[in-house]
Design goal:
homodimer, 352 residues, alpha/beta, six-stranded parallel beta sheet, four-stranded parallel beta sheet, 12 helices, 12 strands, DNA-binding
DNA sequence: TTGAAAGCGCTAACAC
DNA sequence: GTGTTAGCGCTTTCAA
């Protein structure tokens, strides 16, 4: 904790009787330096424990070598994996990460965007809250590219890297229909975000295609706790009540599609309490393929999300935008397929 | 994406025919400015869309208003909660967060510490990998306080904010002993980190105290996957094999204490496959109280970790150190109690 | 190959 | 109250 003076280029220069400039060039590995000088400089730098000042450099190069990462909730396991993937890819590419958490609050998001602007980060990756895109637009206008993660924003012309939830929802719905479901429930959090909207759309779309073989369907919205309090993890408790209501309306051939595996687990309990068995009496499908899902009783059929792929791609996408070669190119939406992992909580027709 | 010139103090000054300095003072809300001038400046700043340049300011104030947060693995749900708590507290206190991920690799950690040094962050919060503390010491020497999170480091004189794992382990062990366990298994990841060491110590300590009522005990180390690959989430699959071995050695009065809830879940399956029932034939205790645990079958007895408290306290601790008022004060270890949440995977004596 | 001068955008010290 | 000067640590002309 010795608040010792930190060596600067000037210190090295002084002690070697060189100009600051030469020292800078020597350390930067530029050509216009004699091998002898370079050696002396490097040695003195080591001796003095010199550490370059990134801020000073950034100020002049106008290059922060930093990416802003804006996440609604790090406790969402999908976002946690996204953070890892993005951090890793960013690091490989030489970028540091400024992490900001919005807790799904627009007010926070505005503040955060402003903060990123002040820092002059080179680019921003963001899971947007929804409602209000002007702060993102502002970043873009000031020359900071923004790439959206997982959630789309209608009123912002920005790249998006995410999941093809429409397709995955269709896939899951078709799966339970094929297994004989005639009464379907979709349980989603009531956040007005594109992933939920897309899954609902995929659900409806598929049901329309199979109208003859469907008796009834319901989209249940679980009130989110996230708007009130801070960044809470998902919790089966959130869907338990809904699960109980559904449990009362079970007829042979019922299927429940849950927006995430935690919701599915809440439903598991509600069903168990009524003595209903999965998949014999009810089929259940989750979303996210969280590590616990394969170990539930019965193992949960769910959708695996390509978090690593998304994180990596998003960073690359952002870097392309930052390179400036793509200016004026239309926003790109890259949606990756999510894989349905079939386990014992649903059954194929053949098994019946 | 218009790479439009960003307004600076000079722009405002020029357009108002004032000195840069006056504008700076006006915007900073300092006293030595006439109300009229201030009003004009603020208006012009708005008109020009002025955004202060944090780096430039930091360069002169020698105050980055940034904290470094070093995490081994954001997909660890405990660390995810820690990240949320720290980000929130930091933000409240006016600090931004630079997030670095080490993936439990010392090489990464070194690089990360260097990076933080270059950025000149004001303080660092870190979950250390273990082995090698010189890079942290280097940060301290250059005047950047370091507060350790969750894991202690023998060879570093730094504050630590974490969990009293020794106590929680004792508590859990006593709990299963009280419920009649005579053969005990402790399952931990084989990382050489203080939390694991402390839990093992608590386990042994308690067993020694109850030597008469214990027939046998085993500490099983699950080979970690984290050293090889990137930041993977915990997975019940990791403990499943160990669980199977244990399942073969079950006698009446067996208890399994798992290092985390995911490990406990892996054991659940292994036991179920042998037709062993919990808690009648085996008691199981987890660690971490992850949201799924209460919804397992049977609900898992586990230890709740005070992540929010730790995050908040750690930030405050760091800020005190940064204030410089505590220089030369001995390193402080703040360990918070973890609460044992008793559910149906263990049984109190009375129930027998 | 090296150095001098200028400046990134801002704040701090002191004069006026 | 306001302006002038200086400087944070670095890179980038441009001369020498």
């Amino acid at each position: 904790m010795t608040p010792r003076h930190r060596a600067t280029l000037r210190d090295i220069a002084a002690s070697l009787d060189l100009s600051v400039n030469t020292v800078s060039r020597a350390l930067a590995g530029k050509d216009a330096v004699s091998p002898v000088t370079r050696e002396r400089v490097e040695q003195e730098a080591r001796r003095l424990g010199y550490v370059p000042n990134t801020m000073a450099r950034s100020l002049v190069t106008r290059n922060a070598m930093t990416l802003g990462l804006v996440i609604t909730n790090p406790s969402n396991p999908f976002y946690a994996r996204l953070i890892s993937a993005i951090e890793e890819r960013g690091r490989v590419r030489g970028y540091s990460l400024m992490l900001m958490v919005t807790e799904d609050s627009v007010a926070n998001e505005r503040r955060v965007a402003e903060e990123l602007l002040r820092w002059g980060v080179d680019g921003v990756l963001a899971v947007p809250v929804q409602h209000g895109a002007d702060h993102w637009a502002r970043l873009q206008e000031s020359g900071t590219p923004v790439v959206l993660l997982n959630r789309d924003l209608d009123d912002l012309a920005a790249d998006l890297v995410g999941v093809d939830y429409f397709a995955s929802s269709r896939r899951a719905t078709e799966h339970v229909l094929a297994a004989g479901a005639r009464r379907l429930f979709l349980i989603e959090e009531d956040l007005e975000i594109s992933p939920v909207a897309e899954r609902v759309r995929g659900f409806h779309h598929t049901l329309r295609e199979h109208a003859d073989s469907v008796d009834s369907y319901t989209v249940a919205r679980v009130p989110t706790r996230r708007r009130e309090s801070s960044s809470l993890p998902w919790d089966p408790a959130d869907s338990y009540e809904i699960g109980r209501e559904i449990a009362e309306r079970i007829v042979p051939g019922t299927a429940v599609l849950a927006g995430n595996d935690y919701f599915a687990l809440g439903v598991y309990r509600a069903l168990a309490e009524r003595g209903l068995s999965i998949p014999e009496e009810v089929a259940v499908v989750g979303n996210g393929d969280h590590p616990f899902s394969a170990y539930l009783n019965p193992p949960l059929t769910t959708v695996r999300l390509p978090a690593e792929q998304i994180g990596t791609t998003a960073v690359d996408r952002l870097l392309s935008r930052m390179s400036g070669q793509e200016t004026d190119k239309e926003p790109v939406h890259e949606l990756f397929a999510a894989e349905l992992i079939v386990r014992s909580s649903t059954r194929a027709r053949e098994d019946l």
